[in-house]
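Newbie here. three chains, one complex. Structure please?
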Amino acid sequence: MILNDFFIFMKQELMLLFIIFLLLLIKVGKDRSNESLLYLINLLLLINVIAGFILPGEGSLFSDMFRTNPLIALEKNMLNIGTLIISMQSYSWLKSHKHLLEFYILMISTLLGMFYMISSGNLLMFYLGLELSSIPLAALVNFDLEKKASSEAAMKFILSSAFSSGLLLFGVSLIYGTTGSLAYAEITSHLSTDPLQIFAFVLFLAGFAFKISAVPFHFWTADVYEGAPVAITSYLSVISKGAVLFVFVSVLYTVFKPLADVWYGMLFVLSISTIIIGNLFAIRQDNFKRFLAFSSIAQVGFILVGISGSSSMGTAAVIYFVLIYIFSNLGAFGVVSIVSSLTGKERISDYKSFYKTNPFLSWILTIALFSLAGVPPAAGFFGKFFLLIAGAEKGNYLLISIAALNMIVSFYYYLRIVKSVFMEPNESPIESLTIPLISKVALYICLLGIVILGLWSVVYDYIFTLSPIF
Amino acid sequence: MNGIPLTHILFVSTALFFIGMYGFFTRRNMITILMSVELILNSVNINFVAFNTYLYPQNLDGIFFTIFIVTIAASEAAVAIAIIINLYRSLHSVDVDETGELKF
Amino acid sequence: MGASSLIVLAIAGIVFSAGGMMIAKIFVKGTKNPQKGQAYESGIKSTGTTWSQFNVGYYLFALVFLVFDVELVFLYPWAVVVKSVGITALIEIIIFIFILFMGFLYAHKKGALKWI
């Protein structure tokens, strides 16, 4: 009976574990060609995505350390889909890479860590998941082994992530000292606005802010995004950030509910500074990855606005937005990834008159950027709209107006790229590229996601019915 | 256990935490920065063990957390040192000021 | 654990760390002589500079050793409870050792255990 529960509740984690061990066994065995391996791995990831949707159970294991419910299963499925898309997009980069299997082993390990983090019901489990999702990522950032920028980015990433988890841990230890427990349910019942607990919470929040790169703690983001290989940059900015955001939402609304007044003020400051700084720095970037790094910082600011609204509306809006963000950001990153792996060009100025040579890629890029900016027919608009509505629930109109104004600023720099892609002349544009079929499919999935999520309200309703009301 | 009050132990751990933080921001050698992070993690360990033995001796949550922190710190150090070695190959230095590839 | 104790903790932390460095700076008289900078090698006069480079192979071995060594700490709490938990504990530790063994196989395959 218990064993049966174990297999149902941990289904998604067990799938990933199975894939990791299979790949390790293949690695230890004799060498195979990259191409056949890539097809095998993508097939496995596809099966993993499909299996994730079957039978989402609800319950907890290991004396409440691990819990799951349909909402958590949905979040994990979103991350699964994102990983599959990234894997398909980076096909042309990985085809000739000599450490292909390590790449996937490390990436799926981080995904496993995120899954454990999302379903954690205990601070110990949460910490283990967090570290499992950040240490292998540092190795992944270093994956262009001979490039200096890549190792430099990895060094910055591992040091800042170690430091941030140090801060977070000090907060956790003080929480343990004042409440006497590590389980979420018991912590909540012992929390009050005791100064030591608030101090602990501030440290905890600082650790989180590092991971989602909210503004006072964003310094590592742009450097790491620029230095890392494109596949990892998109993984960092979408999957890893999304996972931490899911945990952030559920932890704030459930565990730290007694401190709601305290964290509301902090989120207010964090979100405003994050949006403004992200936007201002995004305007002046010329490297495409760096540009997307700052744009993703600004997006996190909008998500923080949504979180500050509290209640089920906030949860649903954040999850819905992250889902849209996965598709739109991966659309943009997919184009950058293909162009970068085939030509090595990563600057925005290289994309001038990109439309003349690669109409398909430029349309994808344009729609993805429209969605990121929040231009109405694309899904991104509805995502941001729901976030702002959720934020407006508390009646803090200063926050909402600043966020809305910044949305307009963000139109400028997103549309600037669209303009240069379609209109600006260029003597040596990027030559016409032949895209591998598998990457093309991935781009079509992103396109479909952006269009369908914006027009079909069932998705949001579904997420809303799953979100708990606190 | 009798004799040394809990606050004294917290003095040590807090001091260790801030020494680590100071080192993290002022040191220029990557290995030393890594050591500073380890100091922070160890101050957390002291906190956990002290809280567990003084305040909540009925179960062992804190001590188990410490064991996990120790192992994870080791793997973190392993990955970090591997990255630093890799960086050393192209940089021939472990000084963070030499890393100027990525800048605004 | 009131607000006052928090402030005291913070001040003590700062004073303790800053004070130590200050005292060291004030009281240590910088007497310099060439013998002080030399490495002590069993009374034999050392040759060359002390800041010589080590072979990178040492680090690789140390890394592999470090990871496997530290993971063994989990065996101690396991050994304490194995009798009372019974067969489940045995299965769990087999899984644990299996994961470590996979890591070992990988290290072996990559040639990390060979001296260059």
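Moderator note: Chain C has a mean pLDDT of 79. Residues 55-116 of chain C form one domain. Thread marked as resolved.
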